[in-house]
Structure formats: C-alpha cells, structure tokens
TrEMBL record, chains A, B:
Residues 251-277 are annotated as: Disordered. Pfam families: HTH_IclR, IclR_C. It comes from Streptosporangium sandarakinum. Keywords: DNA-binding, Transcription, Transcription regulation. One of its GO terms (molecular function) is DNA-binding transcription factor activity. This is DNA-binding IclR family transcriptional regulator.
Length: 277, 277
DNA sequence: ACTTATTTTGCGCTGAATGCAACCAACCGC
DNA sequence: GCGGTTGGTTGCATTCAGCGCAAAATAAGT
C-alpha cells in the first residue's frame, strides 16, 4: 500500500549524488561541489553524504580535488563506459536501422571509421531480393556513402590532406572535387546529414548521418543506400529522417541532450606548422 | 586489525557487478550476462545479484534485454560518463590525436595517471587493420609507453620509490633499470618527449609527451605506439612532433604560453594521492 | 508432458546505515 | 591573538535494510 521497494535506498542516494555532481549548470559550476552543498541540495544529512562520498571515492566513482576538497565525477565511470561503448553500439543501433530499412525499404548500414577506411559493422537489408553483403567490409572513406558523415568533425585542413592523399589520379570529377566534399561536410555540420549521388557501383547513392557516443565524438554513421535515385527533394526528406534517427540513437548511447551538432568548441588547429613528414 | 571500514558493502557489490558487465573478453561476450553467470563469477548469492541488478536497472545503470534476459550497462552510466572531466579532456584532445594518427599512420592514445596505473582515455587507430581496443583500460605505469611522460614532474626520489615497489622480480633488464628510467624522464623534462623501446607486447615501442592543464600540472600524455620500430633518428623526429602537438593541446586546455617545462613549482608532497593501502 | 537451467521471492536474523550532536579545521575580519 | 562563520568528519545507540537459505516461479530444452 505504501510504495514499491523497487530500488535500494543506498543506491538511490548514491545515484542522486552522482547526478548532482554531473549537473553542470547550477551552483558553483567552476569545478566540483562540496559536501555541504550537495547535502543541502538533496535535503540529506551532511554526515550521510560525507560517508557516501568517501565510499564512492574509494571505488573511483568520484574524485576529490585534494586542495579545494570538492568532489567531481571520477575516472571509473569513464572507464566502464569506454570499455563497453564498442559492443554497445551495434546492439543499440539495430532497431534504429531496422526502422529506417522498413520505412524506406532500402538497405541500411551502420559504419565506423577505421583509419582511412569505412568499415560496415551491420546491415539491415531491404525487402527486395538479393543484396550485396557489406558487413565486415571496408572501403576507402572517400568511396563510402557514410564517409562525409564520419568526417564531419574533422578539421577542414585534415580533410583536404586526406582527400589529396586519396585522390591520386583524375578521379576528382567522378566523386566530386575537394570543394564539393567540404561543402557536403559543411552541410552535415549544419543540417545533420549528407546526400551522395554516385560513388560505389553497388550503392549508387544514399544519405547518411553521424552518430555520436557518450562523449560527443562521432562514433559511427547511419547510411541508407538508394538503388534507384529518387528526386532531389525526396533525398532531402530522407536525409532529415536519417539525421533525426541518428540523433535519437546518439541519445540512446548516452549522449547528453546538449551540443547536438557538437558546435561546442571547434578546437584550434592541431596541425599548425608541424609539417614534417 | 580485522578489516578496514573503508567502503560500503552494497556499493562495492554494485561496482563489482558493473565491472563484470563492462568486462567483455571472457565468457559469453556476445550480448550481456545472466544473473547466474554474474553471481557465480563474483562468488555471491544469486538472489543478491538478482536484486542488485533490478535496483541498478531501476536507476538506469544497467539495462536488460527483454528477450534474452541478460544485463548490460545502461544509458545512465554513459550519460554520467560523458560529463566527467576525462570526457572533456578527450573531446578537446581528439583532433590532435587524429592529426598524429594520420601523420604517422600509427595508433595514437591519450593516457592519464591514476594511482600507479595508466588509464587510456581514448585511442585513434591507424589505417592498418584490427587493433586491440585500449580505451578504458588500465596498465601499470611502468608498463605503459606513456608512463615516463606522466611521471615527468615527480621527484626523483618518489620515482625510485615507485619503481622499487613496482619491480618485484628481475624485470629490470626487460623494461630498463631504475637509472634508465630516470635518464628517460630527465629527457622528457628537457626535450619534452620520451622514447620507449619495448614494454607491452602489443605496443612494442612508442613515443610520448606530457600534456599540461591550465595550472601547468601534467594532466595527461599523448602516446604514439610504433608497431615496426623505425630508426633511432626517426623516433626522435616523431618525438619532437608529438611534443609539439602535446604543447598545442596544453594551450588548448588553458595553459598560458609561458613555462613550458613548468619548472615553476615541483610540488612538495604529491604522495597524498597514493592509491591502495 | 517431463526435466533441467535460470531467476525470483518469502522470511527470520544480523549487521550495517542512519541521524543527531559533538568535534575538528580552515578561513575571516578585527 | 580572538570569537564567529562555514565546511567537513566522527562516536554512538537505534533501527531498518540487506543477507542467505531454501522454496517457488519461470523459461528452456527434450
């Protein structure tokens, strides 16, 4: 009659504490929070919070600045998440891919970037008959429909470098020149998806959108290949849907609500003058 | 003298469970883990694990596949992890790592010191095929390529202490003796980077350089592992580039242009942070 | 259907978390 | 130096929540 004894009290308390520590935005955001502040915010006993925090620290869930005595989230959370993110990606993405595959009735793929190659992790085929199996196959990033989405966070300079290295011959016209690429990528940054016309023979055209993991980095891309190219407007429609799906997948992977385009901080050029090769 | 009332029992149990869920590599890696398997692996009561998992699920720390009934880490954990200090560091460092990875076409890592272990925060793989995933994994500081860079600000005496504690057997020759270490570290202080020959099997050799945060303290290290060892001179070239990149990253983190060697204040007693005991 | 494998639940008992208050330690202005 | 204020830890009796055992429920084979 009272309530459900669903979750244990101690755990709930710990989670509340972690949530407070995670919550940037209110209070002295500067760095970390003191015991008293947390206790007051949760309406709990100081002693309780103090002890809980010491336990959490012993486990590495939080860490304490030795000088300011303030707590913040610890390395253990990061470590746990980082080790699992990889395997989690495919599993969590599957229903999203299937949704798109049935919605458009086109082959839908999940791709990741490895070096300068795009690796297809999983595919959901359309209802139409045989398809080429892409799972486990790598193709050069400039050839893949998902390429533009996967590179969206790269510095323009790095992209140019990659393109110049990967476009030895006069293929420029075939897959679009450097400027076309940069324009496409800018489109990914603003609109959230990419539209490609002609690249690999098998997947003539397609739309793709970047998927971000918990840290906000682009971890993968959803790519829908289109066999018979529809009208331009239709492609854009599809792109918007794919982008939205990719965004929801990102959230399911733990990406916090903020910074969808990751416009947060385009960090300064790491290359600089270090040209030596 | 029986035991230490360090950490609470329930929390420790929960952490052990999470650690099992994060640890893919043994057991039915495929998808999550069942209650029984976890209980057996931890040597705990099934009932205990069952209840703990339900509580963790209610908090979103783990999630259960409704059909296979297996557990795996949940969105809440990832969401929290995204807001750690380490995540911020990773996000800022990523383009710098990528720059090095493409420049050398070698795996590039960002590592931090945690107690006497080196935790790899993020890795950017080279174009060459499959590599071991190091993200979220810790290795002893004496085994890591980044170790020398991370310890560069320590007092010689403390380094000796650490080495003596960490070198129980006759490994000295394998990874270089005390004096070799101190010489290497002195090299980091003067030249800004470290070169290591043979440590972990997987990352045979590499170069690394320390990254400093706004106060000038070493917060992390960039480490480029080299699979096929190139000539000595080439390694030194790479070292210089890595050091320069690390310095740019430091600046991006808020380090003022001055005091690159941070000879400013060799902090008197960092020993307080010593881990287990 | 039966048998096995896996997970959940009921329930006394014990140990660990709770809350209060006292205690400790900085920090601040004077 | 002193009293005051803020921030954090510790001692201790009470009490409640988690523990383990075993039995019930559920799923999965055969």
């Amino acid at each position: 009659m009272s309530e459900k004894p669903v979750s244990s009290a101690g755990l709930r308390r710990d989670m509340e504490i972690l949530e407070v520590l995670a919550g940037h935005g209110d209070g002295p955001d500067a760095d970390g929070f003191g015991v008293n502040w947390i206790a007051q915010r949760l309406g709990r006993e100081k002693s309780q919070v103090s002890r809980a925090l010491r336990a959490l620290e012993a486990e590495g869930m939080v860490e304490r600045d030795p000088v300011t005595r303030r707590y913040r989230l610890g390395w253990r959370l990061f470590s746990l998440a980082a080790r699992t993110q990889q395997s989690r990606l495919v599993r969590v993405a599957e229903p999203f891919l299937r949704h798109l595959a049935t919605l458009f009735d086109e082959d839908t793929h999940l791709c990741v970037l490895r070096g300068e190659m795009v690796l297809t992790l999983s595919s959901v085929p359309s209802s139409r008959a045989y398809h080429r199996i892409w799972e486990g196959v790598s193709v050069p990033v400039i050839m893949a429909a998902a390429g533009r989405s996967l590179l969206a966070d790269w510095e323009d300079e790095q992209i140019r470098e990659l393109l110049r290295a990967a476009l030895p011959s006069g293929l420029d016209s075939a897959i679009g020149g450097e400027e076309q690429w940069l324009a496409d990528i800018e489109h990914v940054r603003t609109a959230g998806y990419a539209v490609t016309d002609v690249e690999l023979e098998d997947s003539a055209a397609g739309v793709s959108a970047p998927v971000r993991e918990h840290r906000g980095l682009i971890a993968a891309a959803i790519s829908v290949s289109v066999t018979r190219t529809p009208a331009e407007s239709r492609m854009r429609e599809m792109g918007a849907v794919v982008a939205e799906t990719a965004r929801r997948l990102s959230t399911a992977l733990g990406l916090p609500p903020g910074a969808p385009g990751s416009g947060a901080d385009r960090s300064p050029d790491p290359a600089g003058s270090a040209g030596g090769r």
